[in-house]
Design a protein that fits this description.
The complex is a heterodimer. Chain A is an alpha/beta fold. Chain A contains seven helices and ten strands. The two termini of chain A are about 20 Å apart. Chain B folds into two domains: about 180 residues, no CATH class; about 190 residues, no CATH class. In chain B, strand 3 and strand 4 form a beta hairpin. In chain B, helix 2 crosses helix 12. Classes of the chains: A alpha/beta, B alpha+beta.
Protein backbone atom coordinates (compact mmCIF):
# COMPACT_ATOMS: atom_id res chain seq x y z
CA UNK A 1 0.00 0.00 0.00
CA UNK A 2 2.63 2.46 1.13
CA UNK A 3 6.19 1.78 0.13
CA UNK A 4 8.69 4.37 1.32
CA UNK A 5 12.38 3.99 0.74
CA UNK A 6 15.28 6.23 1.83
CA UNK A 7 13.12 9.31 1.92
CA UNK A 8 14.97 12.59 2.62
CA UNK A 9 13.60 16.06 3.16
CA UNK A 10 15.68 19.06 4.17
CA UNK A 11 14.27 22.40 5.27
CA UNK A 12 16.17 25.61 5.44
CA UNK A 13 15.37 27.34 8.71
CA UNK A 14 17.23 30.62 8.62
CA UNK A 15 20.77 29.63 7.75
CA UNK A 16 20.44 26.21 9.28
CA UNK A 17 19.63 23.09 7.31
CA UNK A 18 17.20 20.88 9.17
CA UNK A 19 16.91 17.25 8.11
CA UNK A 20 13.23 16.59 8.68
CA UNK A 21 13.52 13.18 7.10
CA UNK A 22 16.76 11.27 7.05
CA UNK A 23 16.65 8.14 4.90
CA UNK A 24 13.32 7.05 6.26
CA UNK A 25 12.07 3.68 5.08
CA UNK A 26 8.76 2.06 5.91
CA UNK A 27 6.06 -0.17 4.54
CA UNK A 28 2.40 -0.19 5.27
CA UNK A 29 0.21 -2.99 3.96
CA UNK A 30 -3.42 -2.85 2.87
CA UNK A 31 -6.05 -3.02 5.63
CA UNK A 32 -3.48 -2.23 8.31
CA UNK A 33 -4.13 0.18 11.17
CA UNK A 34 -0.76 1.79 11.79
CA UNK A 35 0.19 4.66 14.07
CA UNK A 36 3.22 6.82 13.54
CA UNK A 37 4.41 8.25 16.81
CA UNK A 38 7.08 10.77 17.59
CA UNK A 39 7.61 13.95 19.60
CA UNK A 40 7.14 17.32 17.97
CA UNK A 41 9.99 18.15 15.64
CA UNK A 42 10.66 14.49 14.99
CA UNK A 43 9.69 14.79 11.33
CA UNK A 44 6.35 13.06 11.62
CA UNK A 45 4.45 16.01 10.12
CA UNK A 46 6.81 16.01 7.17
CA UNK A 47 6.29 12.29 6.79
CA UNK A 48 2.55 12.76 6.95
CA UNK A 49 2.66 15.53 4.32
CA UNK A 50 4.63 13.31 2.01
CA UNK A 51 2.43 10.26 2.59
CA UNK A 52 -0.57 12.54 1.98
CA UNK A 53 0.92 13.73 -1.31
CA UNK A 54 0.79 17.29 -0.03
CA UNK A 55 4.54 17.60 -0.34
CA UNK A 56 7.28 15.79 -2.19
CA UNK A 57 10.56 14.47 -0.81
CA UNK A 58 13.98 15.72 -1.91
CA UNK A 59 15.29 12.19 -2.39
CA UNK A 60 14.16 8.62 -2.06
CA UNK A 61 11.09 6.94 -3.45
CA UNK A 62 7.47 6.81 -2.40
CA UNK A 63 4.96 4.49 -4.00
CA UNK A 64 1.35 4.80 -3.00
CA UNK A 65 -0.83 1.97 -4.28
CA UNK A 66 2.04 1.25 -6.69
CA UNK A 67 2.07 4.77 -8.10
CA UNK A 68 5.47 6.53 -8.17
CA UNK A 69 4.32 9.75 -6.47
CA UNK A 70 7.40 11.85 -7.26
CA UNK A 71 6.61 11.53 -10.98
CA UNK A 72 3.33 13.41 -10.85
CA UNK A 73 2.45 17.06 -11.42
CA UNK A 74 0.64 19.19 -8.90
CA UNK A 75 -2.73 18.70 -10.57
CA UNK A 76 -2.21 14.95 -10.85
CA UNK A 77 -1.34 14.84 -7.15
CA UNK A 78 -4.56 16.70 -6.39
CA UNK A 79 -6.43 13.96 -8.23
CA UNK A 80 -4.55 11.22 -6.36
CA UNK A 81 -5.29 12.90 -3.00
CA UNK A 82 -8.90 13.21 -4.01
CA UNK A 83 -9.35 9.60 -5.06
CA UNK A 84 -6.97 7.62 -2.85
CA UNK A 85 -6.57 9.50 0.42
CA UNK A 86 -9.00 10.63 3.07
CA UNK A 87 -7.58 13.28 5.39
CA UNK A 88 -8.48 13.84 9.01
CA UNK A 89 -6.69 16.79 10.62
CA UNK A 90 -6.10 17.87 14.19
CA UNK A 91 -7.93 21.15 13.66
CA UNK A 92 -10.77 19.47 11.69
CA UNK A 93 -10.25 21.81 8.72
CA UNK A 94 -13.87 22.10 7.76
CA UNK A 95 -14.90 25.03 5.58
CA UNK A 96 -16.80 27.29 7.96
CA UNK A 97 -19.27 28.66 5.40
CA UNK A 98 -20.46 25.22 4.35
CA UNK A 99 -22.85 22.96 6.27
CA UNK A 100 -21.78 19.49 7.45
CA UNK A 101 -23.22 17.75 4.40
CA UNK A 102 -21.73 20.33 2.02
CA UNK A 103 -18.32 19.82 3.56
CA UNK A 104 -18.67 16.08 3.09
CA UNK A 105 -19.92 16.57 -0.46
CA UNK A 106 -16.94 18.70 -1.54
CA UNK A 107 -14.48 15.90 -2.51
CA UNK A 108 -17.24 14.24 -4.54
CA UNK A 109 -17.85 17.51 -6.41
CA UNK A 110 -14.17 17.60 -7.27
CA UNK A 111 -14.54 14.01 -8.53
CA UNK A 112 -17.47 15.16 -10.70
CA UNK A 113 -19.78 12.57 -9.17
CA UNK A 114 -23.38 13.13 -10.36
CA UNK A 115 -25.63 14.94 -7.95
CA UNK A 116 -28.01 12.11 -7.06
CA UNK A 117 -25.13 9.78 -6.22
CA UNK A 118 -23.43 12.52 -4.23
CA UNK A 119 -26.48 13.04 -2.06
CA UNK A 120 -26.74 9.30 -1.39
CA UNK A 121 -23.08 8.87 -0.52
CA UNK A 122 -22.97 11.94 1.72
CA UNK A 123 -25.96 10.58 3.62
CA UNK A 124 -24.29 7.20 4.07
CA UNK A 125 -21.00 8.74 5.22
CA UNK A 126 -22.73 10.93 7.81
CA UNK A 127 -24.72 7.91 9.05
CA UNK A 128 -21.53 5.95 9.51
CA UNK A 129 -20.14 8.59 11.86
CA UNK A 130 -23.52 8.97 13.59
CA UNK A 131 -24.23 12.52 12.44
CA UNK A 132 -27.13 12.05 10.02
CA UNK A 133 -29.26 14.36 12.16
CA UNK A 134 -26.71 17.19 12.03
CA UNK A 135 -26.34 17.31 8.24
CA UNK A 136 -27.60 20.87 7.83
CA UNK A 137 -25.56 22.38 10.65
CA UNK A 138 -22.62 24.68 10.11
CA UNK A 139 -19.30 23.63 11.70
CA UNK A 140 -19.61 26.44 14.26
CA UNK A 141 -22.86 24.90 15.47
CA UNK A 142 -21.20 21.57 16.20
CA UNK A 143 -19.02 20.41 19.08
CA UNK A 144 -15.36 19.53 18.51
CA UNK A 145 -16.08 15.83 18.47
CA UNK A 146 -18.93 16.31 16.02
CA UNK A 147 -16.76 18.45 13.77
CA UNK A 148 -14.12 15.77 13.73
CA UNK A 149 -16.75 13.21 12.84
CA UNK A 150 -17.85 15.40 9.93
CA UNK A 151 -14.20 15.49 8.86
CA UNK A 152 -14.05 11.67 9.06
CA UNK A 153 -17.22 11.46 6.98
CA UNK A 154 -15.55 13.73 4.42
CA UNK A 155 -12.51 11.47 4.45
CA UNK A 156 -14.46 8.24 3.87
CA UNK A 157 -17.07 9.53 1.43
CA UNK A 158 -14.69 9.00 -1.51
CA UNK A 159 -14.00 5.39 -0.39
CA UNK A 160 -10.27 6.08 -0.30
CA UNK A 161 -7.50 3.46 -0.25
CA UNK A 162 -5.94 5.20 2.70
CA UNK A 163 -7.26 7.20 5.63
CA UNK A 164 -4.59 9.54 6.89
CA UNK A 165 -5.27 11.04 10.31
CA UNK A 166 -2.96 13.72 11.65
CA UNK A 167 -3.37 14.07 15.43
CA UNK A 168 -7.12 13.55 15.05
CA UNK A 169 -7.66 13.67 18.82
CA UNK A 170 -5.21 16.46 19.54
CA UNK A 171 -7.92 19.06 20.03
CA UNK A 172 -10.40 16.88 21.88
CA UNK A 173 -10.96 15.78 25.48
CA UNK A 174 -10.20 12.18 26.40
CA UNK A 175 -13.79 10.93 26.27
CA UNK A 176 -14.42 12.40 22.83
CA UNK A 177 -11.00 11.21 21.75
CA UNK A 178 -11.96 7.66 22.55
CA UNK A 179 -15.16 8.03 20.54
CA UNK A 180 -13.13 9.17 17.56
CA UNK A 181 -10.63 6.33 17.99
CA UNK A 182 -13.56 3.92 18.16
CA UNK A 183 -14.74 5.19 14.80
CA UNK A 184 -11.29 4.45 13.41
CA UNK A 185 -11.46 0.94 14.86
CA UNK A 186 -14.81 0.49 13.22
CA UNK A 187 -13.48 1.73 9.89
CA UNK A 188 -10.52 -0.59 10.23
CA UNK A 189 -12.82 -3.52 10.85
CA UNK A 190 -14.66 -2.64 7.67
CA UNK A 191 -11.40 -3.07 5.79
CA UNK A 192 -9.93 0.42 5.54
CA UNK A 193 -6.22 1.12 5.69
CA UNK A 194 -5.57 3.70 8.39
CA UNK A 195 -2.44 5.65 9.21
CA UNK A 196 -2.72 7.64 12.40
CA UNK A 197 -0.06 10.16 13.29
CA UNK A 198 0.23 11.22 16.91
CA UNK A 199 2.59 12.18 19.72
CA UNK A 200 0.38 10.48 22.28
CA UNK A 201 1.51 7.00 23.26
CA UNK A 202 -1.91 5.99 24.54
CA UNK A 203 -3.50 6.79 21.21
CA UNK A 204 -0.67 5.14 19.28
CA UNK A 205 -1.09 1.93 21.27
CA UNK A 206 -4.59 1.46 19.92
CA UNK A 207 -3.27 0.69 16.48
CA UNK A 208 -2.20 -2.74 15.31
CA UNK A 209 1.31 -1.52 14.84
CA UNK A 210 3.28 1.57 15.85
CA UNK A 211 6.11 3.17 13.97
CA UNK A 212 8.37 5.46 15.96
CA UNK A 213 10.09 8.38 14.37
CA UNK A 214 12.81 10.52 15.90
CA UNK A 215 15.01 13.16 14.29
CA UNK A 216 13.78 12.19 10.88
CA UNK A 217 14.64 8.54 11.25
CA UNK A 218 12.39 5.56 11.70
CA UNK A 219 13.73 4.16 14.94
CA UNK A 220 11.49 1.41 16.00
CA UNK A 221 8.63 -0.67 14.77
CA UNK A 222 6.51 -2.23 17.51
CA UNK A 223 3.94 -4.83 16.89
CA UNK B 1 -23.20 26.18 -11.94
CA UNK B 2 -21.95 24.93 -8.60
CA UNK B 3 -19.07 27.37 -8.60
CA UNK B 4 -21.63 30.09 -9.33
CA UNK B 5 -23.59 29.08 -6.23
CA UNK B 6 -20.40 28.99 -4.18
CA UNK B 7 -19.47 32.44 -5.42
CA UNK B 8 -22.87 33.79 -4.40
CA UNK B 9 -22.42 32.33 -0.92
CA UNK B 10 -18.97 33.77 -0.47
CA UNK B 11 -20.24 37.17 -1.55
CA UNK B 12 -23.30 36.80 0.67
CA UNK B 13 -21.09 35.98 3.64
CA UNK B 14 -19.80 39.54 3.66
CA UNK B 15 -22.59 41.68 2.29
CA UNK B 16 -21.36 45.07 3.43
CA UNK B 17 -17.98 44.54 1.87
CA UNK B 18 -19.56 43.20 -1.33
CA UNK B 19 -21.81 46.25 -1.67
CA UNK B 20 -18.96 48.68 -1.05
CA UNK B 21 -16.82 46.86 -3.61
CA UNK B 22 -19.63 46.86 -6.12
CA UNK B 23 -20.18 50.58 -5.61
CA UNK B 24 -17.29 51.37 -7.93
CA UNK B 25 -18.81 49.24 -10.66
CA UNK B 26 -22.31 50.58 -9.98
CA UNK B 27 -21.16 54.20 -10.30
CA UNK B 28 -19.22 53.40 -13.46
CA UNK B 29 -22.17 51.64 -15.07
CA UNK B 30 -24.59 54.41 -14.12
CA UNK B 31 -22.22 57.04 -15.53
CA UNK B 32 -21.81 55.10 -18.76
CA UNK B 33 -25.43 54.17 -19.31
CA UNK B 34 -27.03 57.44 -18.21
CA UNK B 35 -24.64 59.72 -20.08
CA UNK B 36 -24.80 57.80 -23.34
CA UNK B 37 -28.58 57.42 -23.08
CA UNK B 38 -28.92 61.16 -22.49
CA UNK B 39 -26.78 62.00 -25.51
CA UNK B 40 -28.68 59.54 -27.67
CA UNK B 41 -32.02 60.87 -26.48
CA UNK B 42 -31.00 64.45 -27.24
CA UNK B 43 -29.58 63.39 -30.61
CA UNK B 44 -32.71 61.64 -31.75
CA UNK B 45 -34.76 64.64 -30.74
CA UNK B 46 -32.49 67.00 -32.71
CA UNK B 47 -32.28 64.78 -35.79
CA UNK B 48 -36.05 64.44 -35.76
CA UNK B 49 -36.25 68.22 -35.99
CA UNK B 50 -33.74 68.31 -38.82
CA UNK B 51 -35.41 65.60 -40.84
CA UNK B 52 -38.75 67.32 -40.44
CA UNK B 53 -37.15 70.16 -42.39
CA UNK B 54 -37.16 67.95 -45.44
CA UNK B 55 -34.56 65.71 -46.93
CA UNK B 56 -36.21 64.24 -49.97
CA UNK B 57 -33.97 65.71 -52.61
CA UNK B 58 -30.42 65.45 -53.89
CA UNK B 59 -28.20 68.29 -54.91
CA UNK B 60 -25.91 67.50 -57.83
CA UNK B 61 -22.99 69.73 -58.72
CA UNK B 62 -20.87 69.13 -61.79
CA UNK B 63 -17.27 70.05 -61.13
CA UNK B 64 -15.67 69.00 -64.40
CA UNK B 65 -17.82 68.21 -67.43
CA UNK B 66 -14.98 66.52 -69.42
CA UNK B 67 -16.24 68.24 -72.55
CA UNK B 68 -19.73 66.80 -72.23
CA UNK B 69 -21.69 69.62 -70.62
CA UNK B 70 -25.08 68.77 -69.20
CA UNK B 71 -27.99 70.63 -70.83
CA UNK B 72 -31.77 70.50 -70.66
CA UNK B 73 -31.85 67.59 -73.10
CA UNK B 74 -29.60 65.53 -70.85
CA UNK B 75 -31.82 66.22 -67.88
CA UNK B 76 -34.86 65.07 -69.84
CA UNK B 77 -33.06 61.84 -70.73
CA UNK B 78 -32.14 61.25 -67.10
CA UNK B 79 -35.67 61.98 -65.93
CA UNK B 80 -36.81 59.08 -68.09
CA UNK B 81 -34.78 56.68 -65.92
CA UNK B 82 -36.77 54.44 -63.58
CA UNK B 83 -35.29 55.32 -60.25
CA UNK B 84 -34.84 59.01 -60.95
CA UNK B 85 -37.70 61.37 -60.26
CA UNK B 86 -37.90 64.98 -61.34
CA UNK B 87 -34.76 66.95 -62.07
CA UNK B 88 -34.65 70.71 -61.89
CA UNK B 89 -31.61 72.72 -62.92
CA UNK B 90 -30.90 75.81 -60.96
CA UNK B 91 -28.45 78.61 -60.95
CA UNK B 92 -28.51 81.70 -58.89
CA UNK B 93 -27.34 85.27 -59.31
CA UNK B 94 -27.68 88.37 -57.29
CA UNK B 95 -29.30 91.23 -59.23
CA UNK B 96 -30.88 94.56 -58.50
CA UNK B 97 -34.67 94.59 -58.47
CA UNK B 98 -36.72 97.72 -59.07
CA UNK B 99 -40.46 98.34 -58.83
CA UNK B 100 -42.63 101.34 -57.99
CA UNK B 101 -39.69 103.41 -56.83
CA UNK B 102 -38.47 100.69 -54.46
CA UNK B 103 -35.24 98.86 -55.23
CA UNK B 104 -33.04 96.31 -53.57
CA UNK B 105 -30.73 93.39 -54.03
CA UNK B 106 -32.56 90.23 -54.97
CA UNK B 107 -31.44 86.63 -55.35
CA UNK B 108 -32.62 85.36 -58.70
CA UNK B 109 -32.93 81.62 -59.35
CA UNK B 110 -33.13 80.26 -62.89
CA UNK B 111 -34.94 76.93 -63.03
CA UNK B 112 -37.73 74.83 -64.56
CA UNK B 113 -41.28 73.87 -63.48
CA UNK B 114 -39.97 70.69 -61.79
CA UNK B 115 -38.28 72.80 -59.11
CA UNK B 116 -41.65 73.50 -57.50
CA UNK B 117 -42.46 69.85 -56.85
CA UNK B 118 -38.95 68.81 -55.87
CA UNK B 119 -38.66 71.54 -53.29
CA UNK B 120 -42.24 71.08 -52.16
CA UNK B 121 -43.01 74.78 -52.46
CA UNK B 122 -46.38 76.40 -51.81
CA UNK B 123 -47.87 79.34 -53.70
CA UNK B 124 -49.90 81.94 -51.94
CA UNK B 125 -50.90 83.70 -55.19
CA UNK B 126 -50.96 83.05 -58.92
CA UNK B 127 -49.13 80.19 -60.60
CA UNK B 128 -45.65 78.64 -60.82
CA UNK B 129 -43.40 78.67 -63.91
CA UNK B 130 -44.68 76.59 -66.82
CA UNK B 131 -42.90 74.53 -69.44
CA UNK B 132 -44.02 77.04 -72.03
CA UNK B 133 -42.30 79.82 -70.06
CA UNK B 134 -39.05 77.91 -70.29
CA UNK B 135 -39.43 77.08 -73.98
CA UNK B 136 -40.36 80.64 -74.91
CA UNK B 137 -37.88 82.41 -72.64
CA UNK B 138 -40.86 84.29 -71.26
CA UNK B 139 -40.32 87.42 -69.20
CA UNK B 140 -42.20 86.05 -66.22
CA UNK B 141 -41.15 85.48 -62.65
CA UNK B 142 -42.37 84.12 -59.34
CA UNK B 143 -41.26 86.03 -56.26
CA UNK B 144 -41.39 85.28 -52.56
CA UNK B 145 -43.52 87.15 -50.08
CA UNK B 146 -40.56 89.11 -48.74
CA UNK B 147 -39.88 90.49 -52.23
CA UNK B 148 -43.56 91.25 -52.79
CA UNK B 149 -43.84 93.17 -49.56
CA UNK B 150 -40.61 95.09 -49.95
CA UNK B 151 -40.84 95.95 -53.66
CA UNK B 152 -44.59 96.17 -54.35
CA UNK B 153 -45.79 96.80 -50.82
CA UNK B 154 -48.37 94.00 -50.69
CA UNK B 155 -48.54 90.26 -51.43
CA UNK B 156 -51.43 90.27 -53.88
CA UNK B 157 -49.29 91.53 -56.75
CA UNK B 158 -49.82 88.99 -59.54
CA UNK B 159 -49.77 90.75 -62.92
CA UNK B 160 -47.54 93.58 -61.71
CA UNK B 161 -44.16 94.11 -63.26
CA UNK B 162 -40.73 94.37 -61.67
CA UNK B 163 -37.47 95.11 -63.36
CA UNK B 164 -34.41 93.01 -62.76
CA UNK B 165 -31.20 94.74 -63.78
CA UNK B 166 -33.35 96.93 -66.01
CA UNK B 167 -35.27 94.14 -67.75
CA UNK B 168 -38.99 94.04 -67.13
CA UNK B 169 -40.65 90.86 -65.84
CA UNK B 170 -44.27 90.12 -65.10
CA UNK B 171 -45.02 88.58 -61.72
CA UNK B 172 -47.11 85.44 -62.27
CA UNK B 173 -47.04 84.03 -58.78
CA UNK B 174 -46.06 84.66 -55.17
CA UNK B 175 -44.58 81.90 -53.02
CA UNK B 176 -45.89 81.34 -49.55
CA UNK B 177 -43.32 81.60 -46.79
CA UNK B 178 -42.76 78.19 -45.37
CA UNK B 179 -41.48 77.74 -41.90
CA UNK B 180 -40.75 74.08 -41.94
CA UNK B 181 -38.40 74.10 -44.86
CA UNK B 182 -34.69 74.13 -44.36
CA UNK B 183 -34.10 76.44 -47.33
CA UNK B 184 -36.68 78.91 -46.10
CA UNK B 185 -35.17 78.85 -42.63
CA UNK B 186 -31.75 79.60 -44.03
CA UNK B 187 -32.95 82.26 -46.51
CA UNK B 188 -35.80 83.88 -44.61
CA UNK B 189 -35.83 87.62 -44.82
CA UNK B 190 -34.09 87.80 -48.18
CA UNK B 191 -35.82 88.67 -51.43
CA UNK B 192 -35.95 85.97 -54.04
CA UNK B 193 -37.27 85.66 -57.59
CA UNK B 194 -37.60 82.53 -59.73
CA UNK B 195 -37.16 82.82 -63.50
CA UNK B 196 -37.29 80.30 -66.34
CA UNK B 197 -33.74 79.03 -66.65
CA UNK B 198 -33.09 80.44 -70.18
CA UNK B 199 -34.37 83.84 -69.08
CA UNK B 200 -31.81 84.06 -66.33
CA UNK B 201 -29.20 82.82 -68.75
CA UNK B 202 -29.91 85.79 -70.96
CA UNK B 203 -29.99 88.21 -68.04
CA UNK B 204 -26.92 87.14 -66.12
CA UNK B 205 -23.38 87.11 -67.33
CA UNK B 206 -22.38 84.12 -65.23
CA UNK B 207 -25.21 81.73 -66.03
CA UNK B 208 -24.63 79.65 -69.17
CA UNK B 209 -26.42 76.98 -71.19
CA UNK B 210 -24.26 74.41 -69.48
CA UNK B 211 -26.00 73.19 -66.35
CA UNK B 212 -23.71 72.70 -63.41
CA UNK B 213 -26.19 72.44 -60.54
CA UNK B 214 -29.50 70.71 -60.33
CA UNK B 215 -31.86 69.15 -57.84
CA UNK B 216 -32.97 65.55 -58.20
CA UNK B 217 -36.06 64.16 -56.54
CA UNK B 218 -36.88 60.56 -55.74
CA UNK B 219 -38.96 58.63 -58.25
CA UNK B 220 -42.58 57.99 -57.33
CA UNK B 221 -42.62 55.08 -54.92
CA UNK B 222 -38.82 55.15 -54.73
CA UNK B 223 -36.46 56.48 -52.11
CA UNK B 224 -33.88 59.22 -52.17
CA UNK B 225 -31.21 56.58 -51.65
CA UNK B 226 -32.27 54.75 -54.80
CA UNK B 227 -32.30 57.98 -56.74
CA UNK B 228 -28.84 58.80 -55.43
CA UNK B 229 -27.57 55.41 -56.54
CA UNK B 230 -29.10 55.76 -60.02
CA UNK B 231 -27.79 59.30 -60.43
CA UNK B 232 -24.32 58.30 -59.38
CA UNK B 233 -24.39 55.58 -62.00
CA UNK B 234 -25.58 57.97 -64.72
CA UNK B 235 -23.01 60.62 -63.84
CA UNK B 236 -20.18 58.09 -63.69
CA UNK B 237 -21.13 56.90 -67.18
CA UNK B 238 -21.18 60.41 -68.49
CA UNK B 239 -17.94 61.57 -66.90
CA UNK B 240 -15.59 58.67 -67.68
CA UNK B 241 -16.14 56.93 -64.32
CA UNK B 242 -14.47 59.87 -62.62
CA UNK B 243 -15.90 60.22 -59.12
CA UNK B 244 -14.33 63.64 -58.68
CA UNK B 245 -16.10 65.14 -61.67
CA UNK B 246 -19.31 65.66 -59.74
CA UNK B 247 -20.74 65.75 -56.29
CA UNK B 248 -24.04 64.46 -55.00
CA UNK B 249 -25.27 65.56 -51.62
CA UNK B 250 -28.53 65.30 -49.83
CA UNK B 251 -29.85 67.24 -46.93
CA UNK B 252 -29.19 64.01 -45.04
CA UNK B 253 -25.69 65.38 -44.92
CA UNK B 254 -26.82 67.75 -42.20
CA UNK B 255 -28.23 64.85 -40.24
CA UNK B 256 -25.04 62.96 -40.80
CA UNK B 257 -22.95 65.84 -39.55
CA UNK B 258 -25.20 66.14 -36.53
CA UNK B 259 -25.01 62.44 -35.76
CA UNK B 260 -21.26 62.35 -36.18
CA UNK B 261 -20.96 65.16 -33.65
CA UNK B 262 -23.21 63.39 -31.18
CA UNK B 263 -21.65 59.99 -31.66
CA UNK B 264 -18.30 61.60 -30.97
CA UNK B 265 -19.85 63.08 -27.86
CA UNK B 266 -21.15 59.70 -26.70
CA UNK B 267 -17.81 58.06 -27.36
CA UNK B 268 -16.09 60.77 -25.33
CA UNK B 269 -18.53 60.61 -22.42
CA UNK B 270 -18.59 56.82 -22.66
CA UNK B 271 -14.80 56.82 -22.51
CA UNK B 272 -14.77 58.90 -19.36
CA UNK B 273 -17.37 56.61 -17.81
CA UNK B 274 -15.33 53.60 -18.87
CA UNK B 275 -12.40 54.97 -16.89
CA UNK B 276 -14.53 55.02 -13.76
CA UNK B 277 -15.53 51.42 -14.53
CA UNK B 278 -11.87 50.47 -14.68
CA UNK B 279 -11.32 52.17 -11.33
CA UNK B 280 -14.21 50.07 -10.03
CA UNK B 281 -12.44 47.01 -11.43
CA UNK B 282 -9.32 47.88 -9.47
CA UNK B 283 -11.51 47.96 -6.35
CA UNK B 284 -12.70 44.45 -7.20
CA UNK B 285 -9.13 43.28 -7.63
CA UNK B 286 -8.13 44.81 -4.32
CA UNK B 287 -10.91 43.10 -2.40
CA UNK B 288 -10.28 39.80 -4.16
CA UNK B 289 -6.64 39.95 -3.03
CA UNK B 290 -7.85 40.41 0.54
CA UNK B 291 -10.36 37.58 0.14
CA UNK B 292 -7.71 35.23 -1.18
CA UNK B 293 -5.41 35.98 1.74
CA UNK B 294 -8.21 35.61 4.25
CA UNK B 295 -9.23 32.30 2.81
CA UNK B 296 -5.75 30.84 2.44
CA UNK B 297 -6.66 28.06 4.83
CA UNK B 298 -9.85 27.25 2.97
CA UNK B 299 -7.81 27.05 -0.22
CA UNK B 300 -5.45 24.66 1.54
CA UNK B 301 -8.30 22.43 2.67
CA UNK B 302 -9.86 22.38 -0.77
CA UNK B 303 -6.53 21.52 -2.36
CA UNK B 304 -5.85 18.81 0.22
CA UNK B 305 -9.12 17.08 -0.54
CA UNK B 306 -8.52 17.23 -4.25
CA UNK B 307 -9.27 20.62 -5.82
CA UNK B 308 -7.03 21.19 -8.84
CA UNK B 309 -5.50 24.55 -9.71
CA UNK B 310 -8.19 25.04 -12.31
CA UNK B 311 -10.96 24.45 -9.79
CA UNK B 312 -9.57 27.04 -7.38
CA UNK B 313 -8.93 29.48 -10.23
CA UNK B 314 -12.50 29.08 -11.47
CA UNK B 315 -13.90 29.54 -8.00
CA UNK B 316 -12.20 32.87 -7.34
CA UNK B 317 -12.56 34.12 -10.90
CA UNK B 318 -16.25 33.31 -10.71
CA UNK B 319 -16.50 35.28 -7.51
CA UNK B 320 -14.91 38.35 -9.11
CA UNK B 321 -17.11 38.09 -12.20
CA UNK B 322 -20.28 37.57 -10.16
CA UNK B 323 -19.36 40.58 -8.03
CA UNK B 324 -18.89 42.66 -11.20
CA UNK B 325 -22.08 41.44 -12.82
CA UNK B 326 -24.13 42.11 -9.70
CA UNK B 327 -22.73 45.64 -9.67
CA UNK B 328 -23.54 45.88 -13.36
CA UNK B 329 -27.13 44.75 -12.83
CA UNK B 330 -27.67 47.17 -9.97
CA UNK B 331 -26.06 49.94 -12.02
CA UNK B 332 -28.34 49.31 -14.97
CA UNK B 333 -31.40 49.27 -12.73
CA UNK B 334 -30.27 52.51 -11.10
CA UNK B 335 -29.67 54.07 -14.54
CA UNK B 336 -33.16 53.14 -15.57
CA UNK B 337 -34.54 54.75 -12.43
CA UNK B 338 -32.48 57.90 -12.99
CA UNK B 339 -33.65 58.19 -16.60
CA UNK B 340 -37.26 57.83 -15.43
CA UNK B 341 -36.72 60.68 -13.00
CA UNK B 342 -35.08 62.84 -15.67
CA UNK B 343 -37.98 62.12 -18.02
CA UNK B 344 -40.43 63.31 -15.41
CA UNK B 345 -38.40 66.44 -14.72
CA UNK B 346 -37.93 67.44 -18.36
CA UNK B 347 -41.36 66.26 -19.54
CA UNK B 348 -42.01 69.77 -20.87
CA UNK B 349 -38.90 69.68 -23.08
CA UNK B 350 -40.38 67.27 -25.60
CA UNK B 351 -37.47 64.87 -25.13
CA UNK B 352 -37.71 61.24 -24.01
CA UNK B 353 -34.69 59.36 -22.72
CA UNK B 354 -34.64 55.60 -23.01
CA UNK B 355 -32.23 53.06 -21.64
CA UNK B 356 -30.12 52.60 -24.73
CA UNK B 357 -29.96 48.88 -25.52
CA UNK B 358 -26.59 49.19 -27.19
CA UNK B 359 -24.93 50.86 -24.24
CA UNK B 360 -26.55 48.45 -21.78
CA UNK B 361 -25.07 45.56 -23.73
CA UNK B 362 -21.75 47.37 -23.84
CA UNK B 363 -21.85 47.86 -20.06
CA UNK B 364 -22.61 44.16 -19.50
CA UNK B 365 -19.77 43.03 -21.75
CA UNK B 366 -17.38 45.57 -20.27
CA UNK B 367 -18.23 44.58 -16.68
CA UNK B 368 -17.71 40.94 -17.55
CA UNK B 369 -14.31 41.69 -19.03
CA UNK B 370 -13.37 43.78 -16.00
CA UNK B 371 -14.38 40.91 -13.73
CA UNK B 372 -12.22 38.50 -15.70
CA UNK B 373 -9.23 40.82 -16.12
CA UNK B 374 -9.11 42.06 -12.54
CA UNK B 375 -10.17 38.72 -11.06
CA UNK B 376 -7.52 36.75 -12.87
CA UNK B 377 -4.53 37.89 -10.84
CA UNK B 378 -6.01 37.20 -7.37
CA UNK B 379 -7.54 33.92 -8.60
CA UNK B 380 -4.24 32.84 -10.03
CA UNK B 381 -2.53 33.72 -6.77
CA UNK B 382 -5.00 31.47 -4.97
CA UNK B 383 -4.60 28.65 -7.49
CA UNK B 384 -0.83 28.69 -7.20
CA UNK B 385 -0.73 28.30 -3.42
CA UNK B 386 1.00 25.17 -2.23
CA UNK B 387 -1.53 23.04 -0.33
CA UNK B 388 0.83 22.41 2.56
CA UNK B 389 1.65 26.10 3.09
CA UNK B 390 -1.98 27.10 2.73
CA UNK B 391 -3.12 24.41 5.16
CA UNK B 392 -0.83 25.58 7.91
CA UNK B 393 -1.41 29.27 7.31
CA UNK B 394 -2.28 31.17 10.47
CA UNK B 395 -2.38 28.06 12.63
Amino acid sequence: MIDIKDLCKVYLVGDERVRALDYATLHIYPKEFVSIIGPSGSGKSTLMNIIGCLDVADAGSYRLDDLPIEAYSENELAKIRNEKIGFVFQSFNLIPKLSAEENVELPLIYQKVPRAERVQRVKEALERVGLANRAKHLPTELSGGQQQRVAIARAIVTRPKLILADEPTGALDSKTSQEIIDIFHELHRQGNTIVLITHDGDVAKQAERSIHILDGQITEVTL
Amino acid sequence: MLSFKMALRSIGANKMRAVLTMLGIIIGVVALVVLVSLVNGATSSVTDTISSLGSSLLTVTVEDDKGYPVDMETLNEWMAEDKVGLIAPYSADSLTAYADGESGSITVYGTTPAYYDIQGLQLSMGRWLKTADVENNSYVCVINETAAEELIGYVDCVGQAISLDGVKYTIVGVLAEEENNLTSVLTSGTMAAYLPYPSLQRLSGTVTRELTSFYVGAAQGGTVEEAEEAMTQLLLERFDQDEDAFEISSQNALEEAMSSITSMLSVMLGGIAAISLIVGGIGIMNIMMVTVTERTREIGIRKAIGASRGTILTQFLMEAVVLCMMGCGLGIFLSWAILQIINTVVASLDMVFYLDTGVVLLAVVFCFLIGVVFGLYPANKAAKMKPIDALHYGG
